[in-house]
Amino acid sequence: MQFYAALLVSIDEILLIASVLLLLAIAASKASSRLGVPGLLLFIVIGMLAGSDGPGGIPFDNAWQAQSLGVVSLAFILFAGGLETDREKIRPIIWQGLSLSTIGVLITTFLVAGFARMLLKISWPESLLLGAIVSSTDAAAVFSVLRSQNIGLKGHIKPLLELESGSNDPMAVFLTTGLIQLMVHSEYSVARLIPMFILQMGIGAVAGILIGRVTIALINRLKLQSEGLYPVLTTAVVLLAYGATALLNGNGFLAVYLAGIEIGNGDFIHKRSLIRFHDGLSWLMQIAMFLVLGLLVFPSHLVPVAGVGTLLAVFLILVARPASVFLSLLFSRMQTREKVLVSWVGLRGAVPIVLATFPLLAGLPDAALYFDLVFFIVLASVLFQGTTIGFVARKLGLEAPVTTSRLDLLEFLPTQKSQSDLVEMSVAPGSAVSGKQIVALGLPRSALIVLISRDERFITPHGATTLAAGDKLLVLVDKNDVGTVRFSIESERSQGIAAE
Questions:
Q1: What is the dotted CATH code of the domain comprising 12-400?
Q2: 56: DSSP letter
Q3: What is the pLDDT of residues 182-228, one digit of tens each?
Q4: Nearest 5°: phi and psi at 216?
Q5: Which stretch of 29-43, 53-67, 171-185, 380-394 has the lowest confidence by average pLDDT?
Q6: CATH class of this structure's domain 407-490
Q7: Rounded CA gap, 484 and 344, in Å?
C-alpha cells in the first residue's frame, strides 16, 4: 500500500508540474509577440529555469527519454506542417526546396566541420558529426516564428522556407546516424552510406505517399459514428507512418511529412477540423519538446563553451548558411535579396538538440561537449535570427502584409463524384486583379467567387464588385482549373521566384 501511495503522490506531482509548465509556456507564447522574442526561445528558458540548475530544481538528465519525446514530437510537427503545405504553392519551387534540403545540408555540414576542426582541434569524423547535427533548419522553429509573429513574405519565399525546413530534417538525421555508425563500427566505410541513403529515402517516400492516399480513402469510407474518432484515426496514422517506415529501415520523418502533404491536399470529410486538431497537437508537441530539452541542459555547463559556441554560431549564421543557400540555388532565378532572406531564416531549433542526444546515447567521447555546444548554437540562432526576421524582410523589401481570414470557419464536403472544390485564395498586394471588377477578371466558366472576406467583414460578391489587395476569396471551382484560377488571383505582377 505504501508503494501505491508513493506512486500516486509521484503521479500527482508530475501532473501538477506538467500543468504549471504548460500554462507558463502558453503565457510565454502570448508575451512573445509583445517582446519581439520567438515563443520557442521562452519555452526553452522556462525549461532551463525549472531544471536542476534553475530555481525549479526539477532533476532530469535522461537523454533517452528526451530523445524519445523529441522524435515523437517532431513526427507530429512535420505531419501538421505537411497538412498545411499547399502543393500548388510549392510546385514552382519544388526543386529549389529539394536542393536546399539535400545539397544545402551537405555544404553546411562540411563548412561547419572544417571550422570546428580548426577551432576545437578534433578529428574529421567528430567535426563532421558536429556539422551534421546543426546542418538542418528546424521545421518547428520556422513554422512557429513565421506564424506566431504574423510575418508575411512576398512571392514564394515562405512556401520555400517551409518546404526546406520540413524536408531537410531526414537528411540531417541520416547524416548524424550514419556518421555515428562509422565512428562506432570501424569496419564500416563511407561507401556504405550511399546505398543506405537511397534505401532510407526511397522507403520513406513510398511509404509516406502510400499511407497518405490510403488514409484519405479510409476517412471517406469508414463513416465513423462519432466525429471525435477521426482525430484518433489520424493520430494513429502518424504513429504508423513513422513506426512502420523506421522498422522497414526507411526514414520515418520523411514518411510522416509526405503523408501529411498527401492528406492535406486531398478531399475528405472533416478536413478543416482535422487540420485544426493537428495544429493544436503540433503546438502541444512543440511546447513539451522545448520544455523537456530545456530541462535536460544544465545552464552552468553552457558558460565554459560560450566563447567557442559564439564563434561557431556566428560562422554558421554568417558564413555556412549563406554559402549553402547561394551554392545550392546557384542555377535558380531567385533574386539576390531573396537568397539573403532565405539565408537569414535558416533557424536552428529542437532538431539539432534532439540529434545531439544521439552521440550521448552512443557513448561517444566528448558527447556531452557536443550537446552543450549545439544547445548554445541553437539559443544564439533563435535569439539573433528569430527576433530579426521581420526587420531583415522589411530592409530587403520582401515583407508582405498579413491578413486575417475567418473563411476557415466554413467547410465544404465534396462527394467523390463532385468535380468542384471550395478553395480559399488571397489577392496579393501586387496582383493584377487588385482594383478590378470580378466581371473583368476573365475567370473560367467553372469558377465562381462565392464569398469575400475584407477587413474582418464578409462581402457577398457580384459582377461589379471590385477586388482589393488583402481580400480573401472563397472560390467554387472545377478541380482541373484550381491552378489556373489561383495563379491569376494570387500571383504578383512581377514574380521574384520563377519555376525552374
A1: 1.20.1530.20
A2: T
A3: 888 777 777 778 888 899 999 999 999 999 999 999 998 888 888 88
A4: -60, -45
A5: 29-43
A6: alpha beta
A7: 32
